[in-house]
Design goal:
75% of the residues lie in helices and 0% in strands. The protein has helices at 4-15, 19-56.
Amino acid sequence: MMDAQQIDRFVKKINTLSPAQVRQAELFIDFLSQQEDRRLVEGAMTLSQPSLNAVWDNDEDSVYDDL
């Protein structure tokens, strides 16, 4: 979490930007926020893969492997 001085510096910098630059900064902040979410999803997928291998790798469903 940012302290009051960091917030003040951040607001001062944003106030110097054009509206288009503010929008770009907002999009970049959104991108940074989503990075953490993406890492959590990828981590969960990686952790669940061994337990799902038995479901994915079986002779009964092998006909779908070449699709």
